[in-house]
């Protein structure tokens, strides 16, 4: 049996003595750690693409956006056609907020790392919600948020061209509850870079509220930062954690391989 240790008080676990990613007991440990700790680190696992896919499939159905089960994360256009879009990952976000059903887990493996910067930060929005005063929780219940690709990309490029706007707006927006109550009763914020405005509230007022909640959810006590080494594997609960990449030189060879595991619970 592998050993699991906490990485910080509010989130994160490291799986040690990791040997067989396909072992039933290991997979069960991973699922439990992801449910209750949000982020799972396996240092120096050195999974190749086949091993990463096999491990990912033990956690659920692997998605293939654009027909690719393995997505290369790089700011080098020669390595990734999404290099320009990936600049938006320096902002706090949840993936798939504009989709009806968000991805459940994301797995990253480090193939090359930046000499300076390039870490990944995570913020636990379950803990952020549950540490609010009861009066504030009641205030946010029932509020709804519109998420859009445009909102996220404007943080990176506030003065877009007509072609950029057209591309961003070709992706339909999605309305979700501000506080997502799951089937199991747990609650978390649905916020981050894609959160554009609050339904029925003055836009600027709503955006100030969203900014305040993001600031609350990303304070140090709810966060964990991972500094990558080649071969590291990190898996996280995409539905309840905000994440972001930390800045690094775009000419860096930093390269991650990502797999995405499908969710089975739609936004409410």
Automatic annotation (TrEMBL):
The keyword Nucleus does not apply. GO terms for molecular function: dioxygenase activity. Coiled coil: none annotated. Its cofactor is Fe(2+). Residues 6-260 form the TauD/TfdA-like domain. InterPro entries: TauD-like_sf (IPR042098), TauD/TfdA-like (IPR003819), TfdA_dioxygenase (IPR051178). Keywords: Dioxygenase, Iron, Metal-binding, Oxidoreductase. It comes from the Bacteria. SUPFAM superfamilies: Clavaminate synthase-like. PANTHER family: (3R)-3-[(CARBOXYMETHYL)AMINO]FATTY ACID OXYGENASE_DECARBOXYLASE (PTHR43779:SF3), DIOXYGENASE RV0097-RELATED (PTHR43779). Belongs to the TfdA dioxygenase family. This is TauD/TfdA family dioxygenase.
């Amino acid at each position: 049996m592998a050993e699991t240790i906490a990485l910080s008080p509010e989130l994160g676990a490291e799986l040690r003595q990791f040997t067989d990613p396909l072992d039933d007991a290991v997979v069960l440990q991973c699922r439990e750690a992801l449910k209750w700790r949000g982020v799972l680190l396996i240092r120096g696992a050195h999974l190749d693409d086949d091993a990463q896919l096999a491990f990912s499939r033990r956690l659920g159905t692997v998605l293939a956006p654009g027909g690719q089960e393995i997505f290369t994360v790089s700011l080098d256009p020669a390595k990734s056609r999404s290099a320009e879009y990936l600049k938006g990952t320096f902002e706090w976000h949840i993936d798939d907020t504009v989709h009806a059903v968000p991805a459940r887990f994301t797995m990253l493996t480090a193939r090359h790392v930046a000499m300076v910067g390039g870490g990944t930060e995570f913020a636990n929005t379950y803990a952020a919600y549950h540490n609010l005063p009861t009066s504030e929780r009641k205030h946010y219940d029932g509020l709804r948020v519109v998420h859009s690709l445009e909102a996220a990309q404007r943080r990176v490029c506030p003065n877009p061209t007509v072609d950029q706007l057209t591309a961003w707006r070709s992706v339909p927006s999605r309305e979700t509850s501000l506080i997502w109550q799951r089937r199991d009763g747990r609650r978390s914020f649905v916020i981050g870079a894609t959160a554009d405005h609050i339904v029925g509230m003055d836009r600027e007022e709503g955006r100030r509220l969203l900014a305040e909640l993001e600031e609350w959810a990303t304070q140090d006590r709810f966060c964990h930062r991972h500094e990558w080494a080649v071969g590291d594997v990190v898996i996280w609960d995409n539905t309840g954690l905000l994440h972001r990449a930390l800045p690094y030189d775009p000419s860096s060879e930093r390269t991650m391989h990502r797999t995405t595991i499908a969710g089975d619970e739609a936004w409410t």
